[in-house]
Specification:
- By secondary structure, this protein is an alpha+beta fold.
- It folds into 2 domains: about 50 residues; about 80 residues, SH3 type barrels (Roll).
- It has 2 helices and 8 strands.
- The strands form 2 sheets. It has a 5-stranded antiparallel sheet, with no helix packed on it.
- It is rod-shaped.
- The two termini are about 60 Å apart.
- About 5% of the residues are buried.
Length: about 150
C-alpha cells in the first residue's frame, strides 16, 4: 500500500509537470495542485476498496463460543465460574498440589488444594482431572478436554 502511494506520488509530482500541454498555459503550481487533488481521490478510492475486517477474531480461540449461561439452570454465570476456565496444567507433589486454569482471554490462574475459585473449592486431583466441591456438597470435575461434569460423588 505504501509503495503504491510512493510510486503514484513520484509519477504525479515529477513526471506530469514536465509534460508540455499545447492548449494549457497552466503554471507548475496549478499542476501540482491538480496532482494533489488526483492523489487524494485515488487514496480515498483505494481505502474504499480495502477488505472488511471479519466479524470473528481468528485469534480469539474459543472465546466467542463460551456462553455466559449455565446449560443446566439457564442462569447467568459469574466471572469466577469454573465454566469460564479451561484446565491447562496440573502439578501434584508430596507437600503441595496445584492446577492452572486459563480463561478465554488467555490469563492463567494457579490454584492450590483447598483454595476457592468463586463458590467452588479445589479438593482433589487425579492424573487428568481436577475435582471441586460445590456449596451444596456436590462435585464438579474438569478435565484437559474441557469436559466439565457435575457428580454427587467422585
Amino acid at each position: 500500500m505504501n509503495s503504491f502511494k510512493k510510486i503514484l506520488f513520484f509519477i504525479l509530482f515529477f513526471c506530469i509537470p514536465n509534460i508540455g500541454f499545447a492548449d494549457n498555459h497552466s503554471t507548475n503550481a496549478e499542476l501540482v495542485e491538480k496532482a494533489k487533488e488526483i492523489t487524494k481521490t485515488l487514496e480515498t478510492k483505494v481505502e474504499e476498496e480495502e477488505e472488511d475486517v471479519p466479524l470473528n477474531d481468528p485469534f480469539a480461540g474459543n472465546e466467542g463460543s463460551n456462553s455466559s449461561l449455565n446449560p443446566e439452570t439457564g442462569e447467568e454465570r459469574d466471572p469466577m465460574s469454573l465454566y469460564n476456565f479451561k484446565l491447562s496444567g496440573l502439578i501434584s507433589g508430596a507437600n503441595a498440589s496445584y492446577i492452572s486454569l486459563t480463561d478465554a482471554s488467555g490469563d492463567v490462574m494457579t490454584i492450590t488444594l483447598g483454595q476457592y475459585l468463586g463458590k467452588v473449592k479445589l479438593i482433589d486431583l487425579r492424573l487428568t482431572e481436577a475435582i471441586f466441591l460445590k456449596e451444596d456438597k456436590s462435585y464438579i470435575i474438569i478435565d484437559f478436554n474441557n469436559q466439565i461434569r457435575e457428580a454427587d460423588e467422585y
